């Protein structure tokens, strides 16, 4: 019986130590990593929006306005 209690005590101490180690672990993602990811996403999003604005501003919108004017031109 004494052996069973010692075994149970050892397992409990091991589980508590493992839990304490997991909860106090400081490794992982830091503030600098997160800031770099956010900055990269903002820059890529701005480049994508600039590209779309250039595409729609020079290619799509002039032909679209021309087609709308031709569609509503009843006289001719």
Task: Produce a short descriptive summary.
With 76 residues, this protein is mainly alpha-helical. The chain contains two helices and no strands. It has helices at 2-23, 31-71.
Describe this structure in words.
This protein is mainly alpha-helical and 76 residues long. The protein has one domain (2-71). It is built from 2 helices and no strands. The protein has helices at residues 2-23, 31-71. The chain is rod-shaped, with a radius of gyration of 33 Å. The mean pLDDT is 85. The chain crosses the membrane at residues 38-56. Keywords: Membrane, Transmembrane, Transmembrane helix. This is DUF4244 domain-containing protein.
Which descriptor suits the 3D outline? rod-shaped
Helical element count?
Answer: 2
How many independent structural domains?
1
Strand content: under 5%
pLDDT < 50 runs, ≥5 residues: none
SSE pattern: HH
Share in helix: over 70%
Radius of gyration, taken over Cα atoms and rounded to an integer in Å: 33 Å
Structural class: mainly alpha
Termini Cα gap: 105 Å
- Total E-strand runs: 0
Query: Major sheet, described briefly?
Result: none
What is the residue-mean pLDDT, rounded to a whole number? 85
InterPro entries: DUF6133
Protein name: DUF4244 domain-containing protein
Keywords: Membrane, Transmembrane, Transmembrane helix
Organism: Lacrimispora defluvii
Keywords:
single chain, 76 residues, mainly alpha, 2 helices, rod-shaped, membrane, DUF4244 domain-containing protein, transmembrane
């Amino acid at each position: 019986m004494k052996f069973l209690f010692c075994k149970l005590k050892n397992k409990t101490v091991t589980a508590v130590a493992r839990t304490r180690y997991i909860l106090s672990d400081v490794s992982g993602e830091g503030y600098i990593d997160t800031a770099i990811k956010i900055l990269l996403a903002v820059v890529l999003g701005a480049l994508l929006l600039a590209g779309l604005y250039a595409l729609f501003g020079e290619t799509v919108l002039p032909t679209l306005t021309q087609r709308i004017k031709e569609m509503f031109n009843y006289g001719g």
